[in-house]
Amino acid sequence: MIEVVNLGKYFYTNGKKKVLFEGVSFVLREGDFISLTGESGCGKTTLVKIMAGIETPSEGYVIYDGVRPSFFKDYFVSKFRNKNIGFVFQTFELIESISVIDNVLMPVYLAGASISRYRERAREILRYVGMDEYINSDVKILSGGQKQRVALARALVMNPKYIFADEPTANLDEKNAVEIVKLLERINREMNVGIIFITHRLDVMEFANKLAYIKDGKFFIEDNGKMSLFKGTNEV
After folding, report:
1. CA-to-CA distance for 197 and 75, rounded, in angstroms?
2. What is the 3-state secondary structure (H, E, C) of the chain?
3. How far apart are CA 197 and CA 48, in angstroms?
4. Does residue 79 belong to any structural domain of this protein?
5. Residue 231: inside a domain, yes or no?
6. Which among 20, 95, 108, 157 is least surrounded, fewest beta carbons within 10 Å?
7. Total domains, the chain
8. Nearest one of 38, 45, 43, 24 to 213, comparing CA atoms
9. Closest CA to 177 of 148, 140, 198, 154
10. Do the bridges between strand 162-166 and strand 59-64 make them parallel or antiparallel, or are there none, so unpaired?
């Protein structure tokens, strides 16, 4: 469980305080599937980075599996992140000069774990996301939708409890965008992985079981079923 408590992020420009968001409190549990939206520049990516321990909040704190780290905080959060969180990005962040399976194994290389131990796991995950016929192919031959499936496999290879996806459908057409979010929903349902994904797209928000958004510096979250809040606009 990742719990954020009264998080705020702000900075100063020409002596004036600029608030991205404040008073953010909620819990991401294993099995949650949360969409996060809001206007460009409202702090969505910043919030997710704070949850992952990549950025520091201006106020508030994050609790990881019941622990609020203080001593050796950076070490604790880095260890938790490497073990428990997989990341997916809108630009895929794949290495095109190496094979699909080597891209999937990259977190294993970086963690210094046994490649032989995880190689079969990588193959299984690539089959799971529908990319088994491309296991030894170069990434550069893949379409955008296929690259995002590889990126999902990479995020899953070390059995994370959570996936943080920053606009994973932004560079995809409508068909592939829906397919990727359906795949995320399947991962959430079948593997019980907690997922928070940033999006502006109405057509993919509906798959989440919780809707979160940032507006005018305030954070809101609710169970899905109140999509009228978003109708008639592409962004909140």
Report:
1. 25
2. CEEEEEEEEEEEECCEEEEEEEEEEEEECCCCEEEEEECCCCCHHHHHHHHCCCCCCCEEEEEECCECCCCCHHHHHHHHHHHHEEEEECCCCCCCCCEHHHHHCHHHHHHCCCHHHHHHHHHHHHHHCCCHHHCCCEHHHCCHHHHHHHHHHHHHCCCCCEEEEECCCCCCCHHHHHHHHHHHHHHHHHHCCEEEEECCCHHHHCCCCEEEEEECCEEEEEECCCHHHCCCCCCC
3. 9
4. yes
5. no
6. 95
7. 1
8. 38
9. 148
10. unpaired
Amino acid in position 168: P
Identity at 5, one-letter amino acid code: V
Q: What is residue 220's predicted lDDT score, i.e. its pLDDT?
A: 94
Residue pointed to by tokens 């499936």: 149
Q: Which residue has the tokens 């704070």?
A: 50
The backbone region for 159, taken as left when phi is positive above 0, alpha when psi lies in -120 to 50, beta otherwise, is left
Q: What is the pLDDT of residues 98-134, one digit of tens each?
A: 999 999 999 998 888 889 999 999 999 999 999 999 9
Flag whether 234 is in a domain.
no
